[in-house]
Every structure is written in structure tokens, then in C-alpha cells.
Specification:
By secondary structure, this protein is of the alpha+beta class. The strands form 2 sheets. Strands 1, 2, 3, 4, 5, 6, 7, 8 and 10 form a 9-stranded mixed sheet that branches. About 45% of the residues lie in helices and about 25% in strands. It is built from 11 helices and 11 strands. β4 and β5 form a beta hairpin. The protein folds into 2 domains: about 5-150, Sandwich (Jelly Rolls); about 155-260, Homeodomain-like (Arc Repressor Mutant, subunit A). α6 (about 175-185) packs across α7 (about 190-200).
């Protein structure tokens, strides 16, 4: 499963604080910092290529553009906060071109501290100044409990964000690596290499997956025929769609939806 760019999360420009029962999410990435703490049960976490079954009192941290996913095998209760990077420029600068040696933290004292901060942040009447203060306390506490290492291949996050936004807004149209390269003023070979190095996926395949995901989403809504979903999602023909779908998932769209409640 390839990670996808979570545009809905990207469009939020406020600190987000949420409580979840039996949380799950498909493999994704975004520019925001995401911190998850576990209150009950167990949750499988996948962050930046590493995996761990998190239990009560444990924490996971996904830095900007780190691929991550969650799955609850039986039961879990958790809390997650999302922090836009423009709100924490100092933290962003400290972690720029770096990664966590481990995105998972097992520390009961840290958990209790974060739980209190999360609880205060989740209150309805928190003003912006207090919210920012709690955010910095959370990030500062995280920094005290993690180790950072340099990325072997640093990325230009500003450019990849612009490219991903552009693809998200235009994948239903006739876009291609050459048109994307022309739009941003680079050669096609440079854009293709850059995208692969940042997202670990071929640019053509990423566009195809965006279109496939949109088809499945529309089919789940049940308001359109399959042909309408295909054309609405940017595929030039039914033949191209079926060939692409079969290549990615090894089955027909109806078989996929029947056996799975997940999105692409």
C-alpha cells in the first residue's frame, strides 16, 4: 500500500485535538505534526517505515511528511493532536532535514504529562494564546524524550507540497509528468526523480492511485454508475481504468468493494 497525501488534513490551518475509539487510518502523509497517545487497549502504528503495537501509556510521533497509519485489532481508545508547521516554526527548524530514531515512546511520566496537556487543549473554551502555549509545552516535552538523526536525502518540503496540492486539484483533468514539470518550470526528468525521492512512488503511479481512490470513493457513495465514476475521476476510458485497477489490486472494482470496507 502506497501512502497518499491527506489533502483534507492539509487544508486545516488550526491545531486539531481529537479523541478516538478503535481508531484506524490508511497509510498517508501530510505536512502537519501528528502526536498520538494510547489510553486503553492496543493499536498497531506504522510511522516512517517502523511498526509497533502501542499499548496504554505509549506515544507515537509523526513529523512533517512522515508516512503513517493506524489499525486497531480489537479495541483502543486514543487521542491525537495535529499541529500545522506554520504555528511552530522553531520546532520545524529544529527537526528540518531530520527524522526520529524511533517514532514511538514508552514513558509513563511522559504519557501522564501529555494526557493533561491534551485534555486542556481539547476543552471548548481554550483561547488561542493558551492553545499556542499548550502546543509549545507538548512539542517541548516531545523533544526532551526523542532523539533525532540527519536525513540521508533532505527534501524541499515547500516544493513537494506545491506539487501534491497541484495534483490533488488537477488529477481529474488531463495531467501528466510533462505538464506538471512545465507548470513548475522544471524538466520532466527532474520532477519525476524529485517526486520519487520525496514520496517513494513513481509520479505516474501516484496520479493513477489518486484517480483509483476517487473512483472507489464515488462507488461507495452509490450515486453514480461505474462509467460516470471513471470519467469523473480523470481516466480517459473504461479500458484504461480496468487495466490500472487490475494491475494495482489484482481484482475487479466490485470484488474489491465487496471484500473491503477500506478506501484506497
Amino acid at each position: 500500500m502506497q501512502p497518499y497525501f491527506n489533502m483534507s488534513r492539509e487544508k486545516s490551518n488550526q491545531i486539531g485535538s481529537f479523541n478516538y475509539e478503535n481508531d484506524w487510518c490508511v497509510l498517508q502523509f501530510h505536512s502537519q505534526i501528528e502526536i498520538c497517545i494510547i489510553h486503553e487497549g492496543e493499536m498497531e502504528a506504522f510511522v516512517d517505515g517502523k511498526q509497533k503495537t502501542l499499548k496504554k501509556g505509549e506515544v507515537s510521533v509523526a513529523l512533517s511528511f512522515s508516512p503513517h497509519a493506524y489499525k486497531t485489532p480489537v479495541h483502543s481508545r486514543s487521542s491525537i493532536i495535529f499541529i500545522p508547521t506554520y504555528l511552530c516554526e522553531e520546532f520545524t527548524e529544529l527537526t528540518k532535514n531530520k527524522r526520529l530514531t524511533s517514532p514511538f515512546i514508552s514513558n509513563s511520566n511522559l504519557y501522564e504529562t501529555l494526557k493533561d496537556y491534551f485534555s486542556l487543549l481539547h476543552q471548548d473554551n481554550v483561547n488561542e494564546i493558551k492553545s499556542r502555549g499548550l502546543m509549545y509545552m507538548i512539542l517541548g516535552t516531545i523533544l526532551e524524550n526523542v532523539q533525532l538523526e540527519d536525513l540521508q536525502n533532505p527534501i524541499n518540503t515547500e516544493l513537494i507540497s506545491k506539487i501534491l496540492f497541484y495534483i490533488n486539484e488537477n488529477f481529474k483533468n488531463d495531467i501528466s509528468p510533462s505538464k506538471i514539470a512545465e507548470h513548475f518550470g522544471y524538466s520532466q526528468s527532474h520532477i519525476s526523480r524529485y517526486f520519487k525521492s520525496c514520496c517513494s512512488i513513481n509520479l505516474i503511479r501516484y496520479i493513477a492511485l489518486m484517480r483509483l481512490r476517487n473512483v472507489v470513493m464515488l462507488l461507495h457513495e452509490g450515486q453514480h454508475t461505474l462509467t460516470e465514476c471513471i470519467l469523473e475521476s480523470g481516466f480517459s476510458s473504461n479500458t484504461t481504468f480496468y487495466r490500472t485497477f487490475k494491475k494495482e489490486f489484482g481484482c475487479s472494482p466490485k470484488e474489491y468493494i465487496k471484500k473491503s470496507n477500506t478506501h484506497i
